[in-house]
Amino acid sequence: MHLEHLAIAVADLDAALRFYRDVLGLTLERVEELPSEGVRVAFLPLGESHIELVQPTQEETGITRWMAKTGGGMHHLCLAVDDIRAALARLSAAGAELITPQPVARPDGTLYAFIHPRSTGGVLIELYQKSQPTSP
Amino acid sequence: MHLEHLAIAVADLDAALRFYRDVLGLTLERVEELPSEGVRVAFLPLGESHIELVQPTQEETGITRWMAKTGGGMHHLCLAVDDIRAALARLSAAGAELITPQPVARPDGTLYAFIHPRSTGGVLIELYQKSQPTSP
Questions:
Q1: How far is CA B7 from the centre of its chain?
Q2: What is the pLDDT of residue B36?
Q3: Domains of chain B
Q4: B5, B78 in Cβ contact below 8 A?
Q5: Nearest to B123 among A2, A73, A90 (CB)
Q6: What is the ipTM of this complex?
């Protein structure tokens, strides 16, 4: 298991990049617009992991409400696992509260699921499984 | 640069370990009592990084006040750098607000410093430099 990414919610992505890229010296890999999730995301590699700077682009999403309450900052961490279904089954059996009890597939074949902060000491945790190459 | 650790502030370290160690499956490396900082810390390796679960053990510390306000959760991230003085000079020249403008030495020779969340999009960031082996 390793930390796949740490997501930081910011009100102004360009201002955040001036700090994380220009001052702190991280590399900006790419910026993605994700209208279906109502966010614009900058990816900055950091060792085996990366930082995601997430700017909400729509009203009335979960992250917009979270930002209104907190002002922004570290929003969730994402752990890469080998077998997300086994991990979710173990969590569920132990009584952990899952926001997505079944893994959700992204278009690129990766799977993700979220664990509720109530079960984790106050941290929104995403689990993530890379897509498996299919046999020829 | 890599993520040295991610610190999660919790009210009950044993309850947090039941999740992070027993359910999520991370390894508990050690628990340290740090009376000088008013905390008890559990270290759980995670790839090249680790998670620190931090339980306040005294009233009237910065972390106690932060927990009273937020309920706990991700408290700070720590970046390992090769040259902390050069990093602080660059941050300072760029107008970043430093909580510790000069690096602070721990007994083991490591150096650390904190950047204020006002300069980082809402994230308390620690910089950390490993102690250098002295020449024989």
A1: 5
A2: 87
A3: 1-76 (3.10.180.10), 81-136 (3.10.180.10)
A4: yes
A5: A73
A6: 0.92
